[in-house]
Automatic annotation (TrEMBL):
Pathway: Pyrimidine metabolism; UMP biosynthesis via de novo pathway
GO CC, alphabetical: cytoplasm
Gene Ontology biological process: 'de novo' pyrimidine nucleobase biosynthetic process; 'de novo' UMP biosynthetic process
Domain Dihydroorotate dehydrogenase catalytic residues, every copy: 3-294
Obligatory cofactor(s): FMN
Assigned EC number: 1.3.98.1
InterPro entries xrefs: Aldolase_TIM, DHO_dehydrogenase, DHOD_1A, Dihydro_DH_chainA_dom2, Dihydroorotate_DH_1, Dihydroorotate_DH_1_2, Dihydroorotate_DH_cat, Dihydroorotate_DH_CS
SUPFAM superfamilies in the cross-refs: FMN-linked oxidoreductases
Pfam families: DHO_dh
Organism placement in taxonomy: Eukaryota, Fungi, Dikarya, Ascomycota, Saccharomycotina
Full protein name: Dihydroorotate dehydrogenase (fumarate)
Species of provenance: Torulaspora delbrueckii
Catalytic activity: (S)-dihydroorotate + fumarate = orotate + succinate
Length: 312
Protein backbone atom coordinates (compact mmCIF):
# COMPACT_ATOMS: atom_id res chain seq x y z
CA UNK A 1 0.00 0.00 0.00
CA UNK A 2 1.59 3.27 -1.07
CA UNK A 3 0.49 6.91 -1.27
CA UNK A 4 3.46 7.67 -3.52
CA UNK A 5 2.44 10.35 -6.01
CA UNK A 6 4.21 11.26 -9.23
CA UNK A 7 3.99 14.98 -10.08
CA UNK A 8 6.05 17.02 -12.49
CA UNK A 9 8.54 14.25 -13.07
CA UNK A 10 9.19 13.77 -9.35
CA UNK A 11 7.79 11.35 -6.79
CA UNK A 12 6.27 12.59 -3.54
CA UNK A 13 5.76 10.29 -0.55
CA UNK A 14 2.11 11.28 -0.45
CA UNK A 15 -0.18 13.77 -2.23
CA UNK A 16 -0.70 16.04 0.80
CA UNK A 17 0.49 19.61 1.12
CA UNK A 18 -0.69 22.91 2.61
CA UNK A 19 -2.86 25.32 0.69
CA UNK A 20 -0.97 28.51 -0.07
CA UNK A 21 -1.60 31.02 2.69
CA UNK A 22 -1.89 28.46 5.47
CA UNK A 23 1.16 27.57 7.59
CA UNK A 24 3.55 29.18 5.10
CA UNK A 25 3.90 32.88 5.91
CA UNK A 26 7.20 32.62 7.82
CA UNK A 27 10.34 30.46 7.56
CA UNK A 28 9.37 28.89 10.90
CA UNK A 29 6.02 27.80 9.50
CA UNK A 30 7.66 26.58 6.29
CA UNK A 31 10.20 24.57 8.35
CA UNK A 32 7.30 22.99 10.26
CA UNK A 33 5.64 22.04 6.97
CA UNK A 34 8.94 20.68 5.68
CA UNK A 35 9.41 18.56 8.82
CA UNK A 36 5.81 17.30 8.82
CA UNK A 37 4.36 14.19 7.14
CA UNK A 38 3.13 16.35 4.24
CA UNK A 39 4.42 15.18 0.86
CA UNK A 40 5.35 18.74 -0.09
CA UNK A 41 4.52 22.36 0.70
CA UNK A 42 3.81 25.71 -0.98
CA UNK A 43 4.78 29.23 0.06
CA UNK A 44 2.37 32.09 0.79
CA UNK A 45 1.47 33.97 -2.41
CA UNK A 46 4.23 36.53 -2.77
CA UNK A 47 4.07 40.07 -4.12
CA UNK A 48 7.06 42.18 -5.17
CA UNK A 49 7.61 43.57 -1.69
CA UNK A 50 6.27 43.03 1.83
CA UNK A 51 2.52 43.55 2.20
CA UNK A 52 0.83 44.15 5.54
CA UNK A 53 -2.52 42.96 4.20
CA UNK A 54 -5.95 43.82 5.52
CA UNK A 55 -6.74 45.07 9.07
CA UNK A 56 -7.45 42.46 11.73
CA UNK A 57 -9.52 40.51 12.64
CA UNK A 58 -9.18 39.06 9.17
CA UNK A 59 -9.36 35.28 9.77
CA UNK A 60 -12.05 33.50 11.76
CA UNK A 61 -12.56 29.78 12.32
CA UNK A 62 -16.22 28.72 12.40
CA UNK A 63 -17.80 25.29 13.10
CA UNK A 64 -18.05 24.29 9.44
CA UNK A 65 -14.90 25.97 8.17
CA UNK A 66 -13.36 29.41 8.04
CA UNK A 67 -13.83 32.89 6.65
CA UNK A 68 -10.85 35.10 5.74
CA UNK A 69 -9.98 38.40 4.22
CA UNK A 70 -6.22 38.40 4.74
CA UNK A 71 -5.52 40.70 1.79
CA UNK A 72 -2.34 38.92 0.66
CA UNK A 73 -0.08 39.78 3.59
CA UNK A 74 3.38 38.40 2.81
CA UNK A 75 7.07 39.05 3.30
CA UNK A 76 7.75 39.79 -0.37
CA UNK A 77 9.11 37.46 -3.06
CA UNK A 78 12.79 37.66 -2.06
CA UNK A 79 12.05 36.26 1.42
CA UNK A 80 10.38 33.15 0.01
CA UNK A 81 12.75 32.75 -2.94
CA UNK A 82 15.73 32.84 -0.56
CA UNK A 83 14.04 30.18 1.57
CA UNK A 84 13.36 27.76 -1.27
CA UNK A 85 16.81 28.31 -2.83
CA UNK A 86 18.54 27.68 0.52
CA UNK A 87 16.45 24.54 0.95
CA UNK A 88 17.37 23.37 -2.56
CA UNK A 89 21.07 23.66 -1.66
CA UNK A 90 20.67 21.89 1.69
CA UNK A 91 18.30 19.16 0.40
CA UNK A 92 19.63 18.52 -3.13
CA UNK A 93 17.91 15.13 -3.36
CA UNK A 94 14.44 16.05 -2.10
CA UNK A 95 11.51 16.53 -4.49
CA UNK A 96 11.04 20.20 -5.40
CA UNK A 97 8.54 22.38 -3.55
CA UNK A 98 5.89 24.82 -4.75
CA UNK A 99 6.13 28.61 -4.90
CA UNK A 100 3.08 30.91 -5.07
CA UNK A 101 2.92 34.43 -6.55
CA UNK A 102 0.05 36.91 -6.76
CA UNK A 103 0.72 40.16 -8.57
CA UNK A 104 -1.64 43.13 -8.21
CA UNK A 105 -1.41 43.79 -11.95
CA UNK A 106 -0.48 42.06 -15.21
CA UNK A 107 2.89 43.80 -15.07
CA UNK A 108 3.60 42.71 -11.50
CA UNK A 109 2.67 39.10 -12.31
CA UNK A 110 5.11 39.15 -15.25
CA UNK A 111 7.88 40.70 -13.15
CA UNK A 112 7.40 38.17 -10.35
CA UNK A 113 7.61 35.29 -12.83
CA UNK A 114 10.62 36.82 -14.60
CA UNK A 115 12.43 36.85 -11.24
CA UNK A 116 11.64 33.16 -10.73
CA UNK A 117 12.57 32.29 -14.31
CA UNK A 118 15.95 33.99 -13.84
CA UNK A 119 16.56 32.17 -10.53
CA UNK A 120 17.82 28.66 -9.84
CA UNK A 121 14.44 27.62 -8.43
CA UNK A 122 13.86 24.00 -9.51
CA UNK A 123 10.30 23.63 -8.25
CA UNK A 124 6.82 24.42 -9.50
CA UNK A 125 5.33 27.91 -9.46
CA UNK A 126 1.68 28.61 -8.71
CA UNK A 127 0.20 31.77 -10.23
CA UNK A 128 -2.64 32.81 -7.94
CA UNK A 129 -5.49 34.02 -10.14
CA UNK A 130 -8.08 33.90 -7.41
CA UNK A 131 -7.50 35.97 -4.29
CA UNK A 132 -10.95 37.37 -3.43
CA UNK A 133 -9.77 39.66 -0.68
CA UNK A 134 -7.90 42.63 -2.11
CA UNK A 135 -10.38 45.53 -2.00
CA UNK A 136 -10.89 46.93 -5.48
CA UNK A 137 -9.17 43.96 -7.17
CA UNK A 138 -11.48 41.41 -8.84
CA UNK A 139 -10.45 37.76 -8.87
CA UNK A 140 -8.40 37.56 -12.09
CA UNK A 141 -9.83 34.21 -13.23
CA UNK A 142 -13.36 35.66 -13.31
CA UNK A 143 -12.06 37.88 -16.14
CA UNK A 144 -11.57 35.36 -18.96
CA UNK A 145 -9.91 37.83 -21.34
CA UNK A 146 -7.47 38.96 -18.64
CA UNK A 147 -6.61 35.33 -17.81
CA UNK A 148 -5.90 34.58 -21.47
CA UNK A 149 -3.81 37.77 -21.84
CA UNK A 150 -1.66 37.07 -18.78
CA UNK A 151 -1.02 33.42 -19.69
CA UNK A 152 -0.12 34.38 -23.29
CA UNK A 153 2.46 36.89 -22.03
CA UNK A 154 3.78 34.52 -19.31
CA UNK A 155 4.46 31.64 -21.67
CA UNK A 156 6.48 33.90 -23.97
CA UNK A 157 9.31 33.66 -21.42
CA UNK A 158 8.44 31.32 -18.51
CA UNK A 159 9.92 27.86 -19.09
CA UNK A 160 9.73 26.35 -15.61
CA UNK A 161 6.71 24.28 -14.45
CA UNK A 162 3.72 26.57 -13.84
CA UNK A 163 0.29 25.98 -12.31
CA UNK A 164 -2.63 28.34 -11.78
CA UNK A 165 -4.80 28.66 -8.63
CA UNK A 166 -8.41 29.03 -9.69
CA UNK A 167 -11.50 30.35 -7.92
CA UNK A 168 -14.59 28.14 -7.95
CA UNK A 169 -16.83 28.25 -11.01
CA UNK A 170 -20.52 27.42 -10.81
CA UNK A 171 -21.69 27.14 -14.42
CA UNK A 172 -20.91 24.61 -17.18
CA UNK A 173 -20.48 27.49 -19.65
CA UNK A 174 -17.71 28.82 -17.41
CA UNK A 175 -16.06 25.38 -16.94
CA UNK A 176 -16.05 25.05 -20.76
CA UNK A 177 -14.80 28.57 -21.46
CA UNK A 178 -12.03 28.48 -18.86
CA UNK A 179 -10.93 24.97 -19.89
CA UNK A 180 -10.69 26.16 -23.50
CA UNK A 181 -8.36 28.95 -22.39
CA UNK A 182 -6.22 26.77 -20.11
CA UNK A 183 -5.85 24.04 -22.74
CA UNK A 184 -4.03 26.53 -24.98
CA UNK A 185 -1.04 26.63 -22.60
CA UNK A 186 1.60 24.12 -21.43
CA UNK A 187 0.50 24.33 -17.81
CA UNK A 188 1.79 21.82 -15.27
CA UNK A 189 -1.46 21.97 -13.32
CA UNK A 190 -4.65 23.73 -12.36
CA UNK A 191 -5.41 24.06 -8.64
CA UNK A 192 -9.12 23.96 -7.80
CA UNK A 193 -10.30 25.72 -5.68
CA UNK A 194 -9.34 28.87 -3.83
CA UNK A 195 -11.78 30.02 -1.13
CA UNK A 196 -15.36 30.64 -2.15
CA UNK A 197 -15.22 34.41 -2.36
CA UNK A 198 -17.17 36.96 -0.36
CA UNK A 199 -19.21 34.92 2.03
CA UNK A 200 -20.61 36.46 5.21
CA UNK A 201 -20.59 34.98 8.73
CA UNK A 202 -22.57 36.57 11.55
CA UNK A 203 -22.09 36.40 15.32
CA UNK A 204 -25.74 36.36 16.35
CA UNK A 205 -24.91 37.13 20.01
CA UNK A 206 -23.46 40.51 19.11
CA UNK A 207 -25.33 40.82 15.80
CA UNK A 208 -21.99 41.58 14.20
CA UNK A 209 -19.78 40.25 11.43
CA UNK A 210 -16.63 38.38 12.55
CA UNK A 211 -13.90 39.91 10.34
CA UNK A 212 -13.06 43.59 9.90
CA UNK A 213 -12.24 44.02 6.19
CA UNK A 214 -14.98 44.60 3.61
CA UNK A 215 -17.80 44.79 6.20
CA UNK A 216 -17.24 41.15 7.08
CA UNK A 217 -17.22 39.69 3.57
CA UNK A 218 -14.51 37.04 3.13
CA UNK A 219 -13.44 33.84 1.41
CA UNK A 220 -15.02 30.65 2.76
CA UNK A 221 -13.02 27.49 3.35
CA UNK A 222 -13.50 24.15 5.07
CA UNK A 223 -16.47 21.77 5.09
CA UNK A 224 -18.68 24.46 3.54
CA UNK A 225 -16.82 24.27 0.25
CA UNK A 226 -16.13 20.55 -0.36
CA UNK A 227 -18.99 19.91 -2.84
CA UNK A 228 -17.94 22.94 -4.88
CA UNK A 229 -14.27 21.97 -4.70
CA UNK A 230 -15.02 18.40 -5.84
CA UNK A 231 -17.16 19.67 -8.72
CA UNK A 232 -14.41 22.01 -9.93
CA UNK A 233 -11.73 19.29 -9.66
CA UNK A 234 -13.99 16.94 -11.67
CA UNK A 235 -15.04 19.59 -14.21
CA UNK A 236 -11.46 20.50 -15.07
CA UNK A 237 -10.13 16.93 -14.86
CA UNK A 238 -12.67 15.90 -17.51
CA UNK A 239 -12.04 18.97 -19.73
CA UNK A 240 -8.28 19.60 -19.63
CA UNK A 241 -5.52 17.90 -21.61
CA UNK A 242 -4.25 14.98 -19.51
CA UNK A 243 -0.85 16.69 -19.42
CA UNK A 244 -2.38 19.36 -17.20
CA UNK A 245 -2.73 17.81 -13.75
CA UNK A 246 -5.26 18.87 -11.12
CA UNK A 247 -4.44 19.86 -7.56
CA UNK A 248 -7.48 19.39 -5.33
CA UNK A 249 -8.04 22.00 -2.63
CA UNK A 250 -11.12 22.62 -0.55
CA UNK A 251 -12.85 20.84 2.29
CA UNK A 252 -10.22 18.18 2.99
CA UNK A 253 -10.61 17.30 6.68
CA UNK A 254 -10.47 13.49 6.63
CA UNK A 255 -8.95 10.66 4.63
CA UNK A 256 -12.37 10.20 3.05
CA UNK A 257 -12.39 13.80 1.79
CA UNK A 258 -8.96 13.17 0.29
CA UNK A 259 -10.23 9.96 -1.33
CA UNK A 260 -13.14 11.88 -2.87
CA UNK A 261 -10.80 14.48 -4.39
CA UNK A 262 -8.65 11.69 -5.84
CA UNK A 263 -11.72 9.95 -7.31
CA UNK A 264 -12.57 13.27 -9.03
CA UNK A 265 -9.11 13.31 -10.62
CA UNK A 266 -6.81 15.24 -8.29
CA UNK A 267 -3.10 14.43 -8.16
CA UNK A 268 -1.81 16.56 -5.28
CA UNK A 269 -4.11 17.52 -2.39
CA UNK A 270 -3.92 20.81 -0.50
CA UNK A 271 -5.27 21.39 2.98
CA UNK A 272 -6.10 24.88 4.26
CA UNK A 273 -8.75 25.47 6.91
CA UNK A 274 -8.31 22.13 8.69
CA UNK A 275 -4.53 22.59 8.73
CA UNK A 276 -5.06 26.01 10.31
CA UNK A 277 -7.30 24.42 12.98
CA UNK A 278 -5.34 21.20 13.65
CA UNK A 279 -1.72 22.07 12.88
CA UNK A 280 0.77 20.03 10.87
CA UNK A 281 -0.07 16.83 12.76
CA UNK A 282 -3.12 16.64 10.47
CA UNK A 283 -0.88 15.15 7.78
CA UNK A 284 -0.13 12.02 9.84
CA UNK A 285 -3.86 11.57 10.41
CA UNK A 286 -4.77 12.13 6.75
CA UNK A 287 -2.09 9.66 5.62
CA UNK A 288 -3.39 7.00 8.02
CA UNK A 289 -7.06 7.56 7.18
CA UNK A 290 -6.49 7.56 3.41
CA UNK A 291 -4.48 4.34 3.65
CA UNK A 292 -7.28 2.74 5.71
CA UNK A 293 -9.89 3.60 3.09
CA UNK A 294 -7.71 2.37 0.23
CA UNK A 295 -6.97 -0.85 2.14
CA UNK A 296 -10.66 -1.46 2.78
CA UNK A 297 -11.49 -0.91 -0.89
CA UNK A 298 -8.58 -2.97 -2.18
CA UNK A 299 -6.56 -0.19 -3.84
CA UNK A 300 -2.78 -0.55 -3.56
CA UNK A 301 -1.81 2.69 -5.27
CA UNK A 302 -3.49 6.07 -5.84
CA UNK A 303 -2.99 5.60 -9.60
CA UNK A 304 -5.53 2.73 -9.36
CA UNK A 305 -8.30 5.09 -8.25
CA UNK A 306 -7.48 8.57 -9.55
CA UNK A 307 -10.29 9.95 -11.68
CA UNK A 308 -12.34 6.74 -11.43
CA UNK A 309 -15.52 8.43 -10.17
CA UNK A 310 -18.53 6.58 -11.55
CA UNK A 311 -21.50 8.36 -13.13
CA UNK A 312 -24.95 6.85 -12.93
O1 LIG B 1 -5.82 33.70 -2.61
C1 LIG B 1 -6.17 33.93 -1.45
N1 LIG B 1 -7.24 33.30 -0.97
C2 LIG B 1 -7.73 33.55 0.26
O2 LIG B 1 -8.76 32.99 0.63
N2 LIG B 1 -7.08 34.43 1.08
C3 LIG B 1 -5.80 34.89 0.73
C4 LIG B 1 -5.57 36.33 1.17
O3 LIG B 1 -6.56 37.07 1.43
O4 LIG B 1 -4.39 36.68 1.24
N3 LIG B 1 -5.48 34.78 -0.66
Amino acid sequence: MSLATKFGGYTYENPFMNASGVHCMSTDELDEMDNSRAGSFITKSATTSHRAGNPEPRYFSVPLGSINSMGLPNQGIDYYLNYVLDRQKSHPDSSPVFFSVAGMSVEENLNLLKKIQDSDFNGTTELNFSCPNVPGKPQVAYDFEMTQEILSKVFEFFKKPLGVKMPPFFDFAHFDAMANILNQFPLAYVNCINSVGNGLYIDVETETVVIKPKDGFGGLGGEYVKPTALANVRAFYTRLNPSIKIIGTGGIKTGQDAFEHLLCGATMLQVGTELYKEGVSIFERLEKELKEIMEKKGYSTIDDLRGKLNSL
